[in-house]
Amino acid sequence: MEIQILERKERCGVAAADKAVEVLKKAIASKGGACFIAASAASQFEFLKALTGETSIDWKRTTMFHLDEYIGLSGDHPASFRAYLRERLIGLVKPGEVHLIQGDAEDPYAECRRLNELLSRKRVDAAFVGIGENGHLAFNDPPADFETEEPYIVVELNEACRRQQLGEGWFTSLEDVPRRAISMSIQQIMKSQAIICTVPDKRKAKAVKQCLEGEISAFHPASILRRHTSVFMYLDKDSASLLEKR
């Protein structure tokens, strides 16, 4: 795992975007196209701003999959991750293929099967992720399922996760935050050739410490990243503030 600690979160985003550009361009050059996974969270604002400002990527030769989505929200709901990605990524660079999670599908398990079939045809070159305040990776809240091989799964969101979404301003009350989501599984994320993890802000400091210096455990889901051979993590001084080894 390669860890960079930057002074400000804006620099985290730029450094992470530089690595993303490197990985995507290498994949396009070597096999004619690149497949990536995109996350949707406040932690990704600066990263996506820097990434979408990059003009050297042939975006038409990329395929995008979606990391997670709430069950029951329409794609035009302000808190929908589909709306987030359309505004901050898809509409700006227009990837050649886009596969979004339909969170308002009538049968979320059937939606998982649809996505699993699509993803089975691809090798993921890069996963762009963050870490939740409770240590979650995607919407795999603790204790996360480290064993399932299913690429997309239906998950229950715990209260800490739901309070984070409320605190970030996506919803007006805790009751408005959905209790279930479709999420890419831990094992599927770990199959990515490279994982670019951007984690700014003081509120993430405890999760960062637990995931980097604690046990690798389902109770600290993002700790599993330490078992991957090609993880690039970008922290700011606030999110790294509790680390003993800096």
| N- and C-termini, Cα separation | 14 Å
Widest sheet, order of strands: 1-10-9-6-2-3-5
CATH architecture: 3-Layer(aba) Sandwich
Low-confidence runs of at least 5 consecutive residues = none
Q: What structural class results from the helix and strand content?
A: alpha/beta
Helix and strand succession? EHEHEEHEHEEHEHEHE
The share of residues in helices is: 25-40%
The CATH topology, please? Answer: Rossmann fold
Mean pLDDT, rounded to whole units?
A: 94
Keyphrases for this structure?
alpha/beta, single chain, 10 strands
What does this structure look like?
- This protein is an alpha/beta fold.
- The protein has a single domain (2-202, 217-231), classed as 3-Layer(aba) Sandwich (Rossmann fold).
- The chain has helices at residues 9-31, 45-52, 81-93, 108-119, 159-167, 186-190, 205-213; strands at residues 2-6, 34-38, 62-66, 68-70, 97-99, 126-129, 152-156, 180-184, 194-199, 231-236.
- The strands form two sheets. Strands 1-10-9-6-2-3-5 form a seven-stranded parallel beta sheet, sandwiched between helices. The chain has a three-stranded antiparallel beta sheet with strand order 4-8-7.
- The two termini are 14 Å apart.
